[in-house]
Amino acid sequence: MRKLRHYGSAIQEVAGNGLLHRRALLGHGIKVVGAMGAGAMGSLTGAAAEPLSEAPWSLEPGDVTPPYGHPSPFEKGVVRSVDNPKNEPSGSRARTPHQFLKGTITPNGLHFTIVHAGIPDIDPAQHKLLIHGMVKQPLLFDLDALSRYRMVTRVGFVECGGNSAPLFSNEPIQADLQALHGLASCAEWAGVPLATLLDEAGVEPGAKWIIAEGADAPHLSRSVPLSKVMDDAMIAMYQNGERIQPGQGYPMRLYLPGYEGNMNVKFLRRIQVTDQPGMTYFESKIYTDPLPDGKDTQFYFVQEVKSFITSPSPGLALREPGVYEISGVAYSGDGRIAKVLVSADGGKSWGEAALDEPRLPKAFTRFSMAWRWDGGPAILQSRAWDEGGHVQPTREEFVSKRGQTSKPPSVLGFPGHHFNAITSWAVNPGGEVRHVYA
To answer: Smaller CB count within 10 Å for the chain: N or C?
Structure first.
């Protein structure tokens, strides 16, 4: 293994095309890396001899503090992309700009949103949640009644089953990270465990499912196994410390950690306990996918292990050769992320990335890798493992399992769901980053 020596220290190159040992990003290692190229650290030569200049904002009082904070106007480009801005009769999707974010928590205003008939303007004082069906005592809750129960908090991701659907294309679609993977976000949710309410209602023997229904115009409904509900389902009322926003299901939504986004029913108004699934429109018509043997998937609930590199990524060009941080997010609906490997040569060799703590189950985990780009061509990839041993598939493995990628689009315009294969970014000598299949 070749070592790069500077100032008496050693930084190992752990994989081909310039991937460096993860300690290059820790402690004194970054100083060593910085000496290897201006791409990581600029020169401070002569800075101490020059006085600091005073910018205009340092010479006069600033603006008034607003009652509710907003991003700086210099960050006005960090917004979601919305594919139905006129709210025409159809679904509407707002995608998270992952290429501009760091950490693991998605701000409320940038959390992805999908609605099927616009966002309802629900009066929380009139909204109620009904629990009925195979229970000994039907219950009706308003927001005030729910707020009196002990709440729990949990950090977790939500991902649309159709996230990354553009990668079903037979040819790599040239779009930015937001367009390709923007239907996934991660937040801190707070609410009442649904198991607490069902225990109070008294679930009858033989019950195996619930059917959750929203108060939006389509009354979107999904079936959920009772075992999942009694494990970790939540009636979420808060997101990142404040009331969930209208696009996230205000005033309350079902939150199912690790499960397909559409099952996390928003604007929740009714839970029916049953002995069988409802076979509702979305679970029987939309979120079923054809397989190579001619059959369809059914009840494909868990969002499987996945990762993607957020930086560098398409639209974020590299300015010059030097040392850069390869960064991204990994997550799994089955538990914690255990390991992420990164490649800079299209999968010929791999190095293990550093993982930020805490690594929470069914939540985003931020990974990073030091990379010395020499100005030549490169193909960047990431591959994740979760604590259960599940591994993110290669594209070849995924297509072998799910069949041809040139399926006709579904009603929502997606040719398929639950795409979790490796994503590849190609860097050319000019520093441009493009989406490729490798």
So the answer is: N
